[in-house]
Amino acid sequence: MKSDIGTTGIWQDIIGLSGALKSALSERTGWDELVLRLRQPGVRRIVVTGNGASHYAGLAMWLASLRRRASTELVCVSSGLLARGTFNWADGDVLLAVSTSGEFRDLIEVASKAGPRVPFYLVTAHRDSSLGRRAAAIASFALPANRAVTHTQDFCCAALTLLALWGQFTNDGDLIEAIEAAPQHCEASVRAAEDWADEAFEQLTLPTAAIVFGNGPAWAAAMESALLIKEVAQIPCEGLETREGATSAMTALGPDVLVLSLPTPADPFIDEAEAICRSTGAPLLRAAVEPGVDARLAAITCFPSAAALAIELALRKGCNPDNPSWVERYYLTARGT
After folding, report:
1. Mode of pairing for the β-strands spanning 284-286 and 257-262
2. Which residues pair with 47 in a beta bridge?
3. pLDDT the model gives residue 276
4. What gap in Å lies between CA 290 and CA 185, rounded to an integer?
5. Is the Cβ–Cβ distance between 299 and 3 less than 8 Å?
6. How confident is the model over 67-108, as pLDDT tens digits?
7. With helix as H, strand as E and coil as C, how does the chain read?
């Protein structure tokens, strides 16, 4: 890689993604039990919730669920809506929270308020945490220590866990097969991102803002990619579904706004959306992804390209990709510490 991206801790975390996914699969704990809990008679709706990257991992699960009909409804709700009592719980609901640390303040509040009529389950890397001690069942994954503050391996492992749970819950053999091959696909995506960066960033100029779009499961990838650009490069960025990129975001595009598109197999809108965005004079990059991979893995396979772009923008802006300036403020509001 020609860029200085490779010298950063966050890119070293990206290089380790495949190994982290392998560990998550081989050292999984409680996954089967949680699926059995979700299959219990009387469960009518699974409410998946999280904040930020965890919310987008839940969104990836929900978008994957649209591919295969199930008798149990799955919805994804931001934890802030649940924490402030604006969600209408119903009989037959179960709460599936996503928090790598198990310490997110809003989710602790949600778990405390849900009460005995709403079973509380958790996806986390830390079973012995505030949320772990409240959960009736936990699906946990192994997670090595990251070099950078920004989530990398934790997001991808959480997304993998949620997709695996849904594959097991629905007996979806294609999704289960895709999950088992996810480490190999991720490794190929990292290599593709390194090759892509050498060419794509050659004419890149520092934008004032950015948008990212993708269709279907890649919508969750677009939301996460936009968060990466905001967190790492501290550049305003919006994550959108592809059609929204063509009909909404394009209204504010220009030469100083960067566009990143996330291709997936048979995206019916991407070519038109890219053409419309280019017509505004906005620079556009199409992320490098391994062709032919199950689109439901998009949150994982699109991640390396988005991270590479975020790191490159941060370096050009003079930001520290491994330890951004917002960290203390984040922990103050997210955990109250």
Report:
1. parallel
2. 75, 95
3. 97
4. 7
5. no
6. 888 889 999 999 999 987 778 899 999 999 999 999 999 999
7. CCCHHHHCHHHHHHHCHHHHHHHHHHCCECHHHHHHHHCCCCCCEEEEEECCHHHHHHHHHHHHHCCCCCCCEEEEEEHHHHHCCCCCCCCCEEEEEECCCCCCHHHHHHHHHHCCCCCEEEEECCCCCCCCCCCCEEEECCCCCCCCCCCCHHHHHHHHHHHHHHHHHHCCHHHHHHHHCHHHHHHHHHHHHHHHHHHHCCCCCCCCEEEEEECCCHHHHHHHHHHHHHHHHCCCEEEEEHHHHHHCHHHHCCCCEEEEEECCCCCCCHHHHHHHHHHCCCCEEECCCCCCCCHHHHHHHCHHHHHHHHHHHHHHHCCCCCCCCCHHHHHHHHCCC
* Residue 101: partners with Cβ closer than 8 Å, 6 or more residues away: 124, 125, 126, 129, 335
Asked if domains 4-180 and 183-317 share a fold, the reply is yes
Domain-wise residue ranges, the chain:
4-180, 183-317
The answer, as to whether pTM is greater than 0.90, is yes
CA distances from 217 to 91, 130, 321 (A): 29, 31, 27
Which CATH number is 4-180 given?
3.40.50.10490
- 44 Cβ contact partners less than 8 Å away, ≥ 6 residues apart: 72, 73, 90, 91, 92, 93
Q: Which CATH class is domain 183-317?
A: alpha beta
Could you tell me if 194 and 228 are in contact, meaning their C-beta atoms sit under 8 angstroms apart? no
Residue 181 CA to residue 294 CA, distance in Å, equals 10
Which residues, listed in sequence order, are joined to residue 240 by a DSSP beta bridge? 213
Q: Binning pLDDT at 50, 70 and 90, where does residue 291 land?
A: confident
Cα dihedral 313, 319, 325, 330 in deg (nearest 10):
20
CA–CA dist 264, 18 (Å, integer) = 20
Beta pairing partners, 50: 78
